[in-house]
Amino acid sequence: MLGLDPAKNIGALRRRIGSQLQDSELPQRIKVWKPSTFCVDYSRRKWLAKIDERLDLESKANASFSSLSGGQKQRLFIALALVNHPEVVFLDEMTTGLDPAARHIAWDLIKEIRANGTTVILVTHFMDEAEELLRQAGDCQSRELLALDSPLGLTSKYATNVKAAFSYEGNELPSMEDIPQVKKVTRNGRTVEVEGIGSFVSLMAAKLVSHGIVPNDLRTRQPSLEDVFLTLTGHRIEV
Asked: Predicted confidence band at 138 (pLDDT cuts at 50, 70, 90)?
């Protein structure tokens, strides 16, 4: 890794990588400011201050580790993983336990260090996080790599179905099955859901308008990495 043998050059390698583990602990009485200060040299102090500010750790600098909430501990471990501005960083379930605001702040930090040349290796069960952060994504099950590609490449290959849904009060709905790209039409009360591929949504909308139906809540859902995961593994994600 980085031209170094982890078995022989572990000290040199540790200075160039970062890691945040799914389960981590620090001494219960240690102050929040201490571990990050010990892990960074003087030249990185401005970067450390920036991380602390972004992750809202400044106000907790003198608090003990044991007094932190689960989300605060997670933010601290993210800071420790990034504090030396690593060339490669390993992040395992990085945003588990974070509220939405803290989650997006962590995302922005990852995008920033990646733009500056850091390689980010991220393990996550959150498919929106993978789509937002990763240039290459892999689906794994039982330690087996099932597929590896860009998020767009994976969805194009393994999850091509688009879903459209709208509300309709009437009894008679024009047939959608004669549109070649439509695969499935279901109706549950007022809600109609149409599943298909390609440009079926525009053809469906045109047909509805031609029959005097103009739904004001027509919405579509594009294929996602979660659809890819379900296609490849056959079961839902467990978080």
From this structure: confident
Which residue matches tokens 């401005």?
A: 46
Domains of the chain: 10-123 (3.40.50.300), 161-222 (3.30.70.980)
DSSP assigned state of 148: E
Predicted local confidence at residue 166, as pLDDT: 92
Q: pTM here? A: 0.70
The structure tokens listed for 187 are 């109706």
Tokens representing 215 are 């739904």
For residue range 87-130, list pLDDT tens digits in order: 999 999 988 888 898 899 899 989 988 888 999 999 888 888 88
Q: Which two tokens stand for residue 21?
A: 């583990």
SS (H, E, C) 94-133: CCCCCCHHHHHHHHHHHHHHHHCCCEEEEECCCHHHHHHH
Q: Burial of 215 by CB count in 10 Å (0-12 exposed, 13-18 middle, 19+ buried)?
A: middle
Distance of CA 28 to the CA centre of its chain: 30
